[in-house]
Design a protein that fits this description.
binds 5-O-phosphono-beta-D-ribofuranosylamine, alpha/beta, 189 residues, 18% strand, 41% helix
Length: 189
């Protein structure tokens, strides 16, 4: 699988480590649209080939990226903090094979512009009593593909956006790799 990430890449690293021991899949490529993203340092340390793509190529020349994915024999794409929309040509080339993680309980708190700290602030502002993670398939609309897994964490009035983020991150670290593996296993049996 290839991981697409725009930022720090803690989920990417967690996925790489988990799948290094998996019989179901391996992470063989990390792609970022941000040349300064820390995920690229992690890729180097983890000895996973990485590639920087421009936002223009992503939008206007998805075929260039598709060629690369073919070169690396990629079957699945996992988005782990990738902040750009996946173009239709890529969705069509990878039907039901692109998986994203969203740091809230979709369908709430999703959509364009809803990422990172903004999500946790919105959850706090809405006075939610729970938050969590949603792992879902990627289609043309932001955060609207079929949900394949959700996990919840209880919130108290004392929680801040920061503590909500910490609780959600703990769920990401615990479940994301395992649920990606389960999904791939289900799909191939
Ligand atoms: C995570 O919270 C993930 O759910 C979201 O973006 C964040 C990425 O964090 N989609 P990291 O780059 O994996 O540290």
């Amino acid at each position: 699988m290839a991981i697409f990430a725009s930022g720090s890449g803690s989920n990417a690293e967690n996925l790489v480590k988990y799948f290094s021991k998996s019989k179901v899949a391996k992470v063989t490529l990390i792609i970022s649209n941000n040349i300064d993203a820390y995920v690229l340092m992690r890729a180097k340390k983890l000895r996973i080939p990485s590639l920087v793509i421009s936002n223009t190529d992503l939008k206007q020349h998805p075929n260039l990226i598709l060629e690369k994915l073919k070169e690396f024999s990629i079957d699945y794409i996992v988005l782990a903090g990738f902040l750009r929309k996946i173009p239709e040509a890529m969705i069509n080339a990878f039907p039901k094979q692109i998986i994203n993680i969203h740091p809230a309980l979709l369908p709430k708190f999703g959509g364009k512009g809803m990422y990172g700290a903004k999500v946790h602030k919105a959850v706090k502002q809405a006075g939610e009593t729970e938050s969590g993670i949603s792992i879902h398939l990627v289609n043309q609309a932001y955060d609207e593909g079929k949900i394949i897994f959700r996990a919840k964490t209880a919130l108290t009035p004392a929680d801040t956006p920061k503590t909500i983020e910490q609780k959600v991150r703990a769920l990401e670290m615990k479940h994301f790799p395992n649920e990606v593996e389960n999904f791939i296993t289900r799909q191939n049996n």
